[in-house]
Amino acid sequence: MPHIEVSLSKRRLYLYEGNTLIKSYLIGIGKILTRTPVGNYVIINKVTYPYSRPGGQLTAYGTLWMGLSRRGYGIHGTNRPSSIGKMVSKGCIRMYNKDVEDLGKRVGIGTSVIIRN
């Protein structure tokens, strides 16, 4: 079963199958006042959003939300791609929409997520 490791200092999300690195993604993380929480979690839900919302706007969560077992936190896309690689979120892990969609196809509910500094 795949698992996810997040390096906050490198601003990278790594997808592993066993000990083999499958893919690495650039991410946005929490601001200083709303840091992304370090710890061990699991993906508890997945919600997809259409590309176009009423008025042609993308949701703040981009095209996919994957909720973590820590309430209120998740891995998601964004309607602000320029925020990727920066400390900008309220603690969630932001990804480019194409990347979160790719990750979402590779992982399911119950996937382990380890967040480290």
UniProtKB/TrEMBL annotation:
Top-level taxon of origin: Bacteria
Keyword Glycosyltransferase: yes
Domain L,D-TPase catalytic: 2-116
Keywords: Cell shape, Cell wall biogenesis/degradation, Glycosyltransferase, Hydrolase, Peptidoglycan synthesis, Transferase
InterPro entries per UniProt: LD-transpeptidase (IPR050979), LD_TPept_cat_dom (IPR005490), Transpep_catalytic_dom (IPR038063)
Name of protein: L,D-transpeptidase family protein
Active site: H76, C92
Lineage: Bacteria, Bacillati, Bacillota, Bacilli, Bacillales
One GO term describing the cellular component: extracellular region
Protein family (similarity comment): Belongs to the YkuD family.
SUPFAM superfamilies attached to this UniProt entry: L,D-transpeptidase catalytic domain-like
One of the Pfam families matching this protein, by short name: YkuD
GO biological process, one term: cell wall organization
GO molecular function, one term: peptidoglycan L,D-transpeptidase activity
This protein's record includes keyword Ribonucleoprotein: no
Pathway recorded for this protein: Cell wall biogenesis; peptidoglycan biosynthesis
